[in-house]
Pentatricopeptide repeat-containing protein (Ilex paraguariensis), 449 residues
Amino acid sequence: MEMMTSSGCNPDAASYTFLVNHLCKRGNVGHAMQLVEKMEEFGYPTNTVTYNSLVRGLCMRGNLNQSLQLVDKLMQKGLVPNAFTYSILLEAAYKEKGVNEAMRLLDNIIAKGGKPNLVSYNVLLTGLCKEGRVDEAIKLFRNMPSKGFTPNVVSHNILLRSLCYEGRWKEANDLLVGMVGEDRSPSIVTYNILVGSLAFHGQTDRALKVLDEMFAGGQFKPTAASYNPIVARLCKERKVDAVVKCLDQMIYRQCNPNEGTYNAIAVLCEEGMVQEAFSIIQSLSKKQNSSTHEFFKSVISSLCRKGNTHPAFQFLYEMTKRGFTPDSYTYSSLIRGLCMEGMLDEAMEVFSIMEESGHRPDVDNFNALVLGLCKSRRTYVALEFFEMMIFKGYMPNETTYTIIVEGIIYEEEKALAAVVLKELHLRQVMGRNTVERLVMQYDLEGLSL
């Protein structure tokens, strides 16, 4: 790997650290580790920030053991992990192997002289709660002062969420009473936990009272995230008038509905009340003085991103009955949503529907489907579809080719991907910058331009 710039000057260590972080975020940890080795060869001492990027990158790929080996190796070089390093490792441990493994790891860290901070214990607290071991989480919470840490508002919120969703209201209330003082006072997250859990248990009246207290006190301004669980519960209970009233209150309090709100309203579709849901969405469009066309595009896209593609199609049907003509962006949203839900055959059928309705698919529609097929490890189906696209006279763009190359890589055919990439560059359908990015990101060997 060449470490000199075209001018012959060495970039500073900060530039290399930035590159390491960038490579890790792109999933190319192996290349990042090679870069770190070169940094050391050129006399740049590796710092904590740099190797934290490597540790996080490995953990994100499920390589906890390799991360631990890297930390041991760097400690031998005199580099001391910081609290952020430990929190990364502990979170990876409970996600990959369970919270018991994370606890053993913490004991091992302490035995080696490591000094984890409060964040590390909050990670363990989260792990216990996610595994449903709330009583053990309470015990850990109470023992934190003996370990030299006072639980903060985050610690309280983690435990409060589990207590509330389990309906352990007295314990939750006792916990709330103790949330007084620096770093422990209730936050907007605390109140949203209360609202969400009350709505989950069907206590929407109490949830609305909590919102009123937030608004009346003036300390916190409710957001859409505060209202959405209530809207969803009211929709689940088919209380249309109450839904309208709740949404009116949101708008009156200058709390703009977001995609979570649209998905909450879509619950009405699950209850067989599609027209009522559509009327509510249509009313929101008017109250927000937004373009009807743009508003419905946003709603369809929001539903599809959250995996609510069926309600999205139901809304689309109601929209077209009222004169709405779907555009390319709307169709792409539907295709992406179907692919995300694993309904690949249905996604391909969308093209037939478009052509039958006189709407010629464009390259963005094709790219949406090709991407969905490749992400589902059906790259060869994507290639067949790509050939059909060419046969019908649709011209691919650089994005299409990039998706195809990445799809081949996902099929663990890196050598083939390198050959295809080189051929595409020779045919001048992929720019040099894109090719170099793919080579670096996926560590494609033997590709010279």
Remarks:
- The radius of gyration is 27 Å.
- The chain has 26 helices and no strands.
- The CA atoms of residues 301 and 422 lie 36 Å apart.
